[in-house]
Amino acid sequence: MDGTRSAAPINLENVRKQYPDGTVAVEGLSMDLAAGETTVLIGPSGCGKSTVLRMINRLIEPSGGTIRIDGTDVGRQDAAKLRRSIGYVIQNVGLFPHQTIRANVGTVPRLVGWPKARIRERTDELLSLVSLDPDRYGDRYPHELSGGQRQRVGVARALAADPVVLLMDEPFSAVDPIVRTRLQDEFRRLQETVRKTVVLVTHDIDEAVRLGDRIAVLSEHGRLQQFAPPAELLATPANDFVREFVGGDRGIKLLAVTPIPHDRLRPADDGTLAPFVAADATLQEALAVMLREGSNRVVVSSNGAPSRVLTVDDIVTELAASRPAPSVEKEG
Ligand SMILES: Nc1ncnc2c1ncn2[C@@H]1O[C@H](COP(=O)(O)OP(=O)(O)OP(=O)(O)O)[C@@H](O)[C@H]1O
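Structure tokens predicted for ABC-type quaternary amine transporter:
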């Protein structure tokens, strides 16, 4: 990690954690996390998700195996320095209550000795990036913000010193469902801009599907059951454990991550009367429009090119066709 890259790959090799009381939380986990991608760790309570996350920034030391960031063994680095190069967001944020929002966001840049003007510039830039007006909120204290706003500050603080890795442990679970969805949408937009290597822990499959470039499903003792992009996980669960975990409505979830198959649609004739959907809509969004408008078809608008028609039958066909081979399959 030379500080010049904005994101770095993470490699876990046969990582193991046994706590002093004998509990084996993680038993030989190996996986490669691509730079600039969001990897979601999901699995039942107690399967070792948080333990994995906290071994990456060495809040917990592994009992065996190797964790590398950008090829460098984290165990060989100075722990404090390592932690400053890794953003960490937790549920309920843990903001310093007696410091202003700006001071909270500027914590790591201050620690690493940035000049005051640069810290101010960076904190204001980040507050804007997480949709908080710095002039309005910068001088407030954490208790003067809503839960969702505090969570945004937590994300801004984690990104402040431009870390190569961002670890997020149930970052959006302490807020109500509406705020949560909004924060998830904001996070997606933010990640498109900053493109960090994000490792996010959740127990919510819908959140995993919405946010993950790849999802790692873990079972007890941190056993990797499947590691795949959301569409693949939903279309072809590797085994019964994953199938049960993603739920009986995985077909509906799959709609949410499947784009409209433009090439396979019929052109609309001039007389086609149906509601419009945007070209970049998902099948779920298209279906929602059909249900709302009481129509069995929609016209897909397409920047200049001739419009096409998407029908309910097309959606059924598309779902039936999405059966890619699983990329990692392990016995349950
Ligand atoms: N400090 C500790 N000492 C002993 N056992 C621990 C310690 N921390 C966690 N454990 C145990 O290790 C296992 C994995 O815990 P961990 O918190 O990593 O799971 P998790 O998947 O993040 O769970 P949750 O979804 O409930 O937060 C659990 O059995 C837990 O009880």
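The two ends are 36 Å apart (CA to CA).
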